[in-house]
Structure formats: structure tokens, C-alpha cells
Amino acid sequence: MDEEMMALHKNDTWELTELPKGKKLSGVDGSLQSNTRQTDQWTAANLNWPLKQFDVKNAFLHGHLKEEVYMDFPPGYNAGRKTRRSGKVIALIIYVDDMIIMGDDSEEMMKLEKSLAAEFKMKNLGDLKYFLGVEVARLSRGIFLSQRKYVLDLLKEIGMLGCKPVDTPITEKHYLGIYPYQEPVDKGIYQRLVGRLIYLSHTRPDIAYAVSVVSQFMHSPSVDHMAAVMRILAYLKSAPRKGILYEHHGHMRIEGFTDADWAGDVTDWAGDVLIGGNLVTWRSKKHNVVSRSSAEAEYRGMAHGVCEILWLRKLLWGLGCTQKEAMKLYCDNKSAREKN
Predict the structure, then answer these.
(1) What is the per-residue pLDDT across 236-251, written as a single tens digit (0 to 9) for each?
(2) In whole angstroms, what separates CA 1 from the centre of its chain?
(3) Domain spanning 250-338: which CATH class is it, in words?
(4) Where are the domains of the chain?
């Protein structure tokens, strides 16, 4: 869209102005791409002519108009639009009826709050402390996120507040799988427990691997699978206050890490991304194809990692954070690194 807008400016197609009184905006969709003409490939094949493709930007706007037409930018696109304060960002985060406002302009934040209060009945809860089961604490070192209450409520609900804690969320060699003659357990109870553990993984990356293992047996859980879930809960009992600390390191560098055989499982690939030295995303996923070599598997994992960091860079750009340094992606496979 930026390229299309630059072409419009270059051709002096229109000028940016305020909508005059009495004038109406003409409808326009978010697509600025023009169609290309189709070439007769049969002729080219028979005559051995070369085939070359071009794209004329804004071809449909090269005609002359006799009347004035006023159009607005597509939703979310503000190129060239003048704002009262440049460089200021206010973000409004909404989940059903819960809202968070953040930004770098306290005056504008107050104006936004007043505008919302004029339209909806709202209650100002002050500084953010609790949101969707996540506890937020602002410390001298940064912002600490945890789900302590969520953990304790879960343990109390299933009667494990007095259980004996363990040091690890899963045994080193668990050999969990689907085997014949295994003893089944209640599927509904198992799925609800694993679902709550998946949500808990948002602030507890230390249980991410164990939760990813037990979540693979949602369709046919057994006694062994339930025992693995109980071990995760016993591990949470040992440290319910653990969470993630986001510190200010003086930079906003994006760094990604990928591994095609995470935790020794050749069917999984995993990746995580750090922004400003803080962990922001982490996940693992089954390989959807069979690779012919470990290097190829690593390349596939790296491709997913590149998509992740590009998406995060775009998100930061929307929040007014421009990346001044090149993003980095790390991979632990020697052959994949040497072939880059």
C-alpha cells in the first residue's frame, strides 16, 4: 500500500485536504492493486516469444475527471494525514468489557478515557494490577507478570493444596503415548485441566514443554496421561509465585531462536522471540511434513521463526516503535548455519 500511495503522489493524482461542508466521501475499499492484462500464452508458445510481466500502478486513476471526488484512506491507513501531535501513541486494549489504556501521552489518555466514559458507563480501577487472571506488579526493575491466584485457585479446586511438591514438571524420560490396553480416564475432566494449564503457560514458560506433551492426548487420555497432569500441578505447588519479569534494557532489538528437534523430540520444532531482551513469544509445533535431512528441518523451523519476527516488527511499528537494528534469528544446527 505504501508503494501505491507513493505512485499516487508522484502522479499528482490528488491532494490531501479537509472534507468541505456539504460534500460526501466516495466509497473505496482497502485494496489499491490494479489488474494486469492477460497475455495470449498460446501465441507466445508457438512463436517462441519471450513472456514478460509488468504491473502498472494506479492504472485506473490515469483518466481525467470532470467533477470533484472526495475519498478517504482505507481503514487503518493514515499515510500523509496530519495529526495534532506527531510521534505520540495511545493504545486501547479491549477484551469484552475489560480495557487497558497505555501510551506516552497522559493528556491524550485522559481525553480518551473521558470520551469512552461519555459513551459507556465505566469504572476507573487505577493502575493495572489484575487482568484476565494475570497479576501485574510494577517493580523498580520492570513489570512482573504472574498467575499466583490462578494457580492457587486451581490447586484448591482439585484438592491439591496440600500435595507434596516436585522439582520438575515432567520426568526426563516419560515415554507417554497412545498404547493398546491403556486404562482410560474421564475425558472431560482431563480436557478441562489441560485447558487451564495451557492458559497458565502464558506466564509460565517453564511448564510449556510438559503442557505441550499432555495436550497431545486430549482425544484419548489414560491413567498415565492424567498422572503427568498431576505432576505438573504438583510442580506448580512448589512455586506458585513464579512468572515473567519484563525489564528495561535500553533497546528494542528483536531476536528469535529456533530448534527443529526441541527437547530431543524430532517431531517437534520450537521457537521463541525476545524483544528488548525480554521473552515475548514462545511455542512448539509438530512438523507438518517429513524432511529429508536435519538441515532441511532446521530451515523449515527458521522459516516459521522469520514469519514470527516479521509479524512482531510490524506490530511494533504500529505502536510507534521503529526498528533501527537488523533483526537476528539464531539456529542451533551447524549445517543450516554454514549453508546460509
Answers:
(1) 998 888 888 888 888 8
(2) 22
(3) alpha beta
(4) 1-82, 86-126, 146-243, 250-338
